[in-house]
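User: Before I run my own analysis I want an independent prediction to cross-check against. Here's the chain; please return only the structure tokens and, at the end, one sentence I can use as a sanity check.
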Amino acid sequence: MDEEDNLKLTQYVAEGAKLFNQFGMDLLNQGQHKECQKLFGNVLTLLKRFHGHQIHSLIGLTLNNLSCSYKRNGQIEEA
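Assistant: Structure tokens:
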């Protein structure tokens, strides 16, 4: 895979991660804590395979969303 293909793939992953974060927050707002925690965990696993400023920002966003889920579920230590 050349540099251009790698950049495109990274952009697709970033866009997907944004959508999954939005969906995870929807789940959180519906009280589906376990489901959104699993989703955020899967997004983190995917993002950690890629590099770049946008990816690092999305890792931070996903970690923050995961922490919010733990807090709302009363899992303060995990948050």
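Sanity check: The two ends are 38 Å apart (CA to CA).
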